[in-house]
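User: What would this chain look like folded?
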Amino acid sequence: MACQAIEGALESLRNDPEFKAAILRVGGGADADLVTVRIEPQPEGADVEVEGEFIGNAPLDFRAPAGQSLKIRITKAKHLPWEKSVRISEGLRIAPELEPKPEADGDG
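Assistant: Here's the prediction, encoded as structure tokens.
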């Protein structure tokens, strides 16, 4: 029964980008596969999520395995969210201009 629990836990980690990145950092020499990604949207201070996990407020840098596709979501109050799946590569810079939300018409 314990083996089934362990197998289930490992299966859930199989596609987890943070787990993969952590394993690569621990393995000897594997850190060369990690690259730094820069996120700097306008306006600054936006929330940044990678694969649904909040990683901080922009501008920021994070490390991820080169070649992996990750879903990036950037949100800020009073602005439309920006979301895109991107392939991670050396020197990748993500700098979208967040669009203001249309103001609600107060007449009515």
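Residues 24-29 have pLDDT under 50 and may be disordered. If you want, I can go into more detail on any region.
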